[in-house]
């Protein structure tokens, strides 16, 4: 074991008071933490926690931190490592202590449960008893996983290492097959049972409770659910966003790339949600109750680790996972999709084709079928996620409708036309009318700030159309001039030939 807190004073000089406090408590509890670590690996003789060190010259704290958690390594005499995972408040938002405890508990319960059925790909986790040390309710130990982010999945300069990608897809398919073997009841997040402590012979008992979300929109209110059906869950999320827009609390900007930032068009956002809500309500599949399965709730490339040959090392960061029906739980992982929220086609990409082939080769046609028909869940989850900071364009809106209905009947040609039809369908919505009045007043008062509205978008489309028409006219004129020149030359050559013939005669 380490010497404990006596030699820890040198590490407690970070410029962030909240981080300072956490590091201090880890240092002061190091002997307790190391004793617990030895209890989960009784064959080890010693354990040493590696406290983070702040470098005053570089002003960098040597600590493995993600967006929501910090990880402190603890190494055994054998060289094996586990990580102490502690929730750390982010700088850009605050949540209550009670919610932090829920996130940590759900993270632990989900990892422990998923590890039981997929030990090759999900690290094991261990949690100390409440009160055993000051941060016990927002922390737990997790096995260290090697590997790096799979940059190879999206190739380089248009070149794909298909054998390497196929290796990753093969292991992802194995993970999905394993997770499909365990089902639950209800749509929500997993939590550890208050009365159960896992042992070698008795796995952790969990239950489905309120749904915790990654999206900042939902962190401002208590968790939603649990729900009996996916329709209830998605409708609740949509209603939450509608409520935020109605009350002027939705403060995302139209695009992080626009400088200066411009407010997003709330009327289009509101109409989009109303239309998608109607699609969800009409979806028979989403109204079914039945078994549910674990789905990772933050499927970015930072949550997947692979080895050099492309084989899957681990899927990490399960704090935003939730249970949902089969059709959504095993839909294509977001990190294999990129962002196609503004694209029209719902066709399969190279990664999805490989997944389908892999599942079918194993006789899992049910999972293959999910990949083929999961566009509505992929589009819906991207729309309701953190990326909902700007309205969809026309292709994205039509792609969403097509994913739900299968066909498009007389689709609108412009975004303005889409909005006019949507307004007509929701003409009795008084909140929409008030929102329209508020936006018009804001636009009149701040014309320099307003951007990305349908009118502006259509003006840009019209300009592009005019430029295209001018270019086509110029090309036609050039073709005509070239044709005239050819004809003149042909006539000249004919006249010269005729003159030569006359001379010969």
Layout of SSEs?
Layout (H helix, E strand, L loop, with lengths): L16 H12 L1 H11 L6 E3 L4 E2 L4 E2 L2 E2 L3 E8 L4 E7 L9 H21 L7 E2 L12 E5 L18 H18 L4 E2 L3 E4 L13 E4 L6 H4 L10 H17 L19 H17 L8 E5 L8 E3 L5 E4 L6 E3 L1 H4 L20 H12 L3 H8 L2 H10 L9 H12 L9 H11 L4 H16 L8 H51 L1
Antiparallel strand pairs: 1-5, 2-3, 4-5, 5-6, 6-8, 7-8, 9-12, 10-11, 12-15, 13-14
Helix pairs in contact: 4-9, 6-7, 7-12, 7-14, 9-10, 11-12
Keywords:
single chain, 505 residues, alpha+beta, six-stranded antiparallel β-sheet, three-stranded antiparallel β-sheet, 15 helices, 15 strands, disordered N terminus, disordered C terminus
What features would you describe in this structure?
Residues 484-505 have a biased composition (Basic and acidic residues). This is Aminoglycoside phosphotransferase domain-containing protein. Residues 445-505 are annotated as: Disordered. It comes from Vanrija albida. Residues 458-483 have a biased composition (Acidic residues). This protein is α+β, with helices and mostly antiparallel strands and 505 residues long. Helices cover 44% and strands 11% of the residues. It contains 15 helices and 15 strands. Strands 1, 4, 5, 6, 7 and 8 form a 6-stranded antiparallel beta sheet that branches. Strands 9-12-15 form a 3-stranded antiparallel beta sheet. Strand 2 (54-55) and strand 3 (60-61) form a beta hairpin. Helix 6 (230-246) packs antiparallel against helix 7, helix 7 packs antiparallel against helix 14 (430-445) and helix 9 (350-361) runs antiparallel to helix 10 (365-372). The radius of gyration is 29 Å and the shape is globular. The chain starts with 16 loop residues before the first helix and ends with a helix. The relative contact order is 0.09. The model is unreliable at 1-15, 252-261, 452-461 and 500-505 (pLDDT under 50).
């Amino acid at each position: 074991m380490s010497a404990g807190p006596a030699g820890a004073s040198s590490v407690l000089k970070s410029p962030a008071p909240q981080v300072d406090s956490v590091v201090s408590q880890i240092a002061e509890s190091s002997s307790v933490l190391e004793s617990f670590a030895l209890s989960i690996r009784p064959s080890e003789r010693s354990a040493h926690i590696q406290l983070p060190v702040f470098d005053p010259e570089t002003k960098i704290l040597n600590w493995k931190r993600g967006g929501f958690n910090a990880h402190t390594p603890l190494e055994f005499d054998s060289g094996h490592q586990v990580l102490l995972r502690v929730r750390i408040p982010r700088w850009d938002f605050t949540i209550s202590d009670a919610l932090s405890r829920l996130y940590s508990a759900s993270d632990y319960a989900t990892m422990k449960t998923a590890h039981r059925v997929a030990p090759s790909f999900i690290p094991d986790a261990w949690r100390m008893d409440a009160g055993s040390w000051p941060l016990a309710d927002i922390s737990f130990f997790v096995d260290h996983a090697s590997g790096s982010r799979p940059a190879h999945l999206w190739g380089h300069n248009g070149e794909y290492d298909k054998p390497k990608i196929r290796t990753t897809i093969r292991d992802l398919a194995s993970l999905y097959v394993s997770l499909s073997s365990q089902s639950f009841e209800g749509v929500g997040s997993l939590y550890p049972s208050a009365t159960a402590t896992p042992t070698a012979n008795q796995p952790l008992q969990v239950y489905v409770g309120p749904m915790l979300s990654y999206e900042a929109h939902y962190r401002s209110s208590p968790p939603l659910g649990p729900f009996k059906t996916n329709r209830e869950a998605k409708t609740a999320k949509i209603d939450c966003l509608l409520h935020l827009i109605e009350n002027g609390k939705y403060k995302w900007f139209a695009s992080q790339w626009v400088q200066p930032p411009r407010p997003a068009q709330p009327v289009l956002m509101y109409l989009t949600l109303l239309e998608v809500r109607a699609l969800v309500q009409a979806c028979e599949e989403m109204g079914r109750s039945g078994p549910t399965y674990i789905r990772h709730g933050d499927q970015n490339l930072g949550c997947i680790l692979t080895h050099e040959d492309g084989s899957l090392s681990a899927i990490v960061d399960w704090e935003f996972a939730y249970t949902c029906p089969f059709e959504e739980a095993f839909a294509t992982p977001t990190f294999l999709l990129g962002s196609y929220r503004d694209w029209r086609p719902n066709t399969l990409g190279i990664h999805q084709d490989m997944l389908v082939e892999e599942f079918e080769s194993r006789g899992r046609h049910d999972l293959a079928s999910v990949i083929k028909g999961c566009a509505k869940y992929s589009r819906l989850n991207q729309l309701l996620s953190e990326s909902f900071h700007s309205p969809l364009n026309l292709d994205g809106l039509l792609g969403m409708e097509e994913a739900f209905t299968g066909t498009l009947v007389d689709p609108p040609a412009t975004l303005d036309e889409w909005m006019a039809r949507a307004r007509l369908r929701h003409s009795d919505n008084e909140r929409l009318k008030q929102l329209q009045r508020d936006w018009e007043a804001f636009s009149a008062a701040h014309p320099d700030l307003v951007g990305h509205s349908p009118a502006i978008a259509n003006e840009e489309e019209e300009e592009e159309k005019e430029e295209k028409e001018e270019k086509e006219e110029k090309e036609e004129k050039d073709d005509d001039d070239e044709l005239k020149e050819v004809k003149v030359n042909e006539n000249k050559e004919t006249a010269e030939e005729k003159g030569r013939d006359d001379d010969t005669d």
